[in-house]
């Protein structure tokens, strides 16, 4: 392609500047090219124009934009001539310039018998680097050779500008498709991760929770999740969202306790530009961002009574108004709220409005503390062991019987979150293939030791000693995979004596071996 940049005059540069502005003024390429053709028509008298774009997969051309051509002309012999020229330009990757169409033969060698004025025709390939993106073809009245050279120079640069836009669009389309696939993949992963079948727990209280999640997911009812800190309230909120018809829409979580009161209204409902100091631009709030999906308000009782009134209106009217704005904006959002506070006491203390409480409490779900579902403790522990072994590239095969006893009887004031942290620490501390009591956090071991050595209650000294002896023997058997001879040697006793104590203390050696 010839290059004429060094001889462009000021008028040409003005036109090119306008073309460049038009191409970058809109994300809609078709609209931009139409504006470019309109500009070239008004400035240079172009009568017709066609932008052809090549499909980057099939490399077949198609018309992206046509200017000054009606539906009947697409069926004419002249247009077939255009198509043939376009095909040749794409194949040769070189321009085709016909100063006088009335004297020209078409590509097939057939004389164009239609009467035409003295028109000129130019078709340029849109090339950038090794890539060809299409063609730019224009039809205009011939004036003189000098004018024709001027138009060739100008179109040469216009074609380059359009090729750059087409390449940018190609890159954006590739990135957009990549992001779309990643988005679909992530949503699928989230849907699987928060599937109700992946929630762990076989106790009756947890089965009741699963039933409640299934029951409410298909509705749009407001859900209030109650439970102590660490019981998995956010996990339940996710499960409700991803089991609902809103699963493909946003799930947005807000920790009401973490946002200052002065900012919470703007965070939830957004604000207009200039609504307050530092509001340099209009910002949408979380409710607008969650439109069509679910908003999860964690620690909802930390909202002030004044904010509760505004949120109550949103729940009732399904409308919001941005801070500093006048327009009422409709929002379709399903709300799930959570708290670990005593709501009834908070109402008595006037921290929570009664009408707000009743509006939230449409469908309550109570999550039990871990101490009330101790049959799930080992199931959860095994799950966390597998996860953190994978994260830390370790191959720990099992949890020892002694550790199982400790975990089962510990009260877990921090609930599932505390258990998870405990197992993560144990995995880090363990350099063998079995988790032993020494790998547990000091707080849990201290409590366990206190239970063994405490003289409170009616437990005799003999029973206390037996408990501790049993713990020592079980720990040693865990270390040697239930081999009594090896355990006896390590404890500096005989196989017969150790076997007798194992029988007296009701230690299940087969269970230790199996585990």
Map the helices and strands.
Layout: H1 10-24, H2 29-44, E1 46-54, E2 61-67, H3 77-92, E3 96-98, E4 119-128, E5 131-141, H4 145-193, H5 204-217, E6 223-226, H6 233-242, E7 251-255, H7 261-269, E8 270-271, E9 283-284, H8 286-289, E10 294-298, H9 305-317, E11 319-320, E12 329-330, E13 334-339, H10 343-348, H11 354-360, E14 363-366, H12 377-391, E15 398-399, H13 401-409, H14 415-429, E16 434-435, H15 442-453, H16 461-479, H17 484-490, H18 495-504, H19 509-514
Parallel strand pairs: 6-13, 6-14, 7-10, 10-13, 15-16
Antiparallel strand pairs: 1-2, 1-5, 3-4, 4-5, 8-9, 11-12
Give a structural overview.
There is one protein chain. The protein is of the alpha/beta class and 515 residues long. It folds into three domains: 5-173, GAF domain (Beta-Lactamase); 194-368, P-loop containing nucleotide triphosphate hydrolases (Rossmann fold, 3-Layer(aba) Sandwich); 371-514, Helicase, Ruva Protein, domain 3. It is 49% helix and 15% strand. It has 19 helices and 16 strands. The protein has helices at residues 10-24, 29-44, 77-92, 145-193, 204-217, 233-242, 261-269, 286-289, 305-317, 343-348, 354-360, 377-391, 401-409, 415-429, 442-453, 461-479, 484-490, 495-504, 509-514; strands at residues 46-54, 61-67, 96-98, 119-128, 131-141, 223-226, 251-255, 270-271, 283-284, 294-298, 319-320, 329-330, 334-339, 363-366, 398-399, 434-435. Strands 2-1-5-4-3 form a five-stranded antiparallel sheet, sandwiched between helices. Strands 7-10-13-6-14 form a five-stranded parallel sheet. Strands 8-9 form a two-stranded antiparallel sheet. Helix 1 runs antiparallel to helix 2, helix 5 crosses helix 6 and helix 16 (461-479) crosses helix 17 (484-490). The longest helix has 49 residues, at 145-193. It is elongated. The protein starts with 9 loop residues before the first helix and ends with a helix.
